[in-house]
Amino acid sequence: xxxxxxxxxxxxxxxxxxxxxxxxxxxxxxxxxxxxxxxxxxxxxxxxxxxxxxxxxxxxxxxxxxxxxxxxxxxxxxxxxxxxxxxxxxxxxxxxxxxxxxxxxxxxxxxxxxxxxxxxxxxxxxxxxxxxxxxxxxxxxxxxxxxxxxxxxxxxxxxxxxxxxxxxxxxxxxxxxxxxxxxxxxxxxxxxxxxxxxxxxxxxxxxxxxxxxxx
Length: 215
Ligand SMILES: NC(=O)c1ccc[n+]([C@@H]2O[C@H](COP(=O)([O-])OP(=O)(O)OC[C@H]3O[C@@H](n4cnc5c(N)ncnc54)[C@H](OP(=O)(O)O)[C@@H]3O)[C@@H](O)[C@H]2O)c1
Hints:
8 strands, binds NADP nicotinamide-adenine-dinucleotide phosphate, three-stranded antiparallel beta sheet, alpha/beta, Dihydrofolate Reductase, subunit A, five-stranded parallel beta sheet
């Protein structure tokens, strides 16, 4: 996020907050996870590939008997996800779309050739069941990479073990831009602090790691 807590601006182009070193650390982090989840709005706005960029890391995963990329996961309530997104068209990995029963048939008709579509919850995805389903598929370590709504959902539900917060050395300063999280009721507040487990400089960025596990 920016110094003032934003994760994008309001332009049509994706705002690059990370520097080269931070992008590399995130690539390393991705390579150690089983799956990566972003919200449907991030897919529509940024059209990210969500793949492992480093050829060495891809080769190391293959040598360990793993796919070169980690599984890609998204959630949608509306079901409005285009099959042409790079989420579906790139990556050597499974792709899983979670949606509620309300749009299940439509999402399956549109995407089931490209991804596993899992329907859970009546009008919104039940996050605990999503995590149980991922675990049942053998995915144990999930990296949640935005955007604001998705960060807020998982943090408010107390379903996050660890937060890696990278702070870029500039301001966005636009109240209409998306923030790291939206207003909400978070389990960690003034009466219940998270544990800072690491704090480092990554070029001109500060990277903080917090644990939300009970001590
Ligand atoms: N700097 C960074 O690290 C970073 C990373 C990622 C994203 N971003 C930025 O974040 C912004 C997007 O964030 P955002 O908050 O607008 O969107 P988001 O969190 O990416 O996605 C929100 C979408 O997730 C779906 N959703 C939310 N709750 C759900 C539930 N309970 N069940 C099922 N689906 C659910 C809905 O999709 P439907 O609308 O389809 O129903 C909702 O619109 C973009 O500007 C992007 O560039 C920044």
